[in-house]
Amino acid sequence: xxxxxxxxxxxxxxxxxxxxxxxxxxxxxxxxxxxxxxxxxxxxxxxxxxxxxxxxxxxxxxxxxxxxxxxxxxxxxxxxxxxxxxxxxxxxxxxxxxxxxxxxxxxxxxxxxxxxxxxxxxxxxxxxxxxxxxxxxxxxxxxxxxxxxxxxxxxxxxxxxxxxxxxxxxxxxxxxxxxxxxxxxxxxxxxxxxxxxxxxxxxxxxxxxxxxxxxxxxxxxxxxxxxxxxxxxxxxxxxxxxxxxxxxxxxxxxxxxxxxxxxxxxxxxxxxxxxxxxxxxxxxxxxxxxxxxxxxxxxxxxxxxxxxxxxxxxxxxxxxxxxxxxxxxxxxxxxxxxxxxxxxxxxxxxxxxxxxxxxxxxxxxxxxxxxxxxxxxxxxxxxxxxxxxxxxx
Length: 393
Known about the structure:
Blueprint: H1 3-17, H2 21-25, H3 32-39, H4 42-85, H5 129-140, H6 150-164, H7 168-179, H8 210-219, H9 221-233, H10 237-257, H11 264-271, H12 274-280, H13 289-306, H14 315-324, H15 326-333, H16 337-340, H17 351-355, H18 358-362, H19 366-380, H20 384-391
């Protein structure tokens, strides 16, 4: 380098060294290409590959252990079902008595090389209450009859629940658990007003999903129509004519719900159509909605009785059947307390469902899960909505 260039470089360094710290901090950041080149240095990539190998080995070992565990869960469940079909008693040996393995190895390292921007995944738009009402109008030329206020719906629900044989304690405590103790008849899961989005299609006191509504209308259609005919008989004039119109709509809805085999998967296909949304809109109707909500719980009660379980279900036991399905829930309900203390909740879940359910994994025995359910019911039953429902019986 020529002497004059050396002097210029030294002068520049001296000038930079004498600059205020604030000015130096405002120098432009390195271009992305330079930063990426530094990140991809041989040392950085070698370290990344070393950590990745450690992670992959640890993860593979964990997956082998977890696979064996959840395979045992599946086999034990099959065995229990076979014993029940044969009328044999189920014992502790028919359950996996250890808890699922938990991954404790190293985290997956971040690749230092440039990564393409991930394409945004399209978000599934769930139907909301206005969509359900619009679907009912479009496909059945019908608008659900909404209650004048929340108390009117609670009283209608209490009448339907009591007539069906549900106790006040069962209805109020399940409502408290499902809605937090203040839920409204048209409350949709996750939706809390403008700017929020629902997390599912679950609506109402017992949080019926769209598929629940389709299935209930298919399976309980005759009972629903009988209840509407009973109301019509007590009316006259324009009120009776309106009710007869509602009955005609319900007949068409029942026929639609019964147009497929009576399975959850087939009903789910209907529920994912706009015409299926129209059936879900009936949870909002003052005459139909209370019966749909009631039958959601009543089917679990009847299932338990049909399986020979005659003792009245506690609200927490009924909620277990409501949440996990009747067959799985009854497995927990019929278990004596001594077994509940020892049997892990993992026995009643698929692996993915268990890992996504922090309540079941944190309260990891049947006894603990039922206890925390009861605790939440105790707290939420003291809230105004639950008190109003209790007073409606």
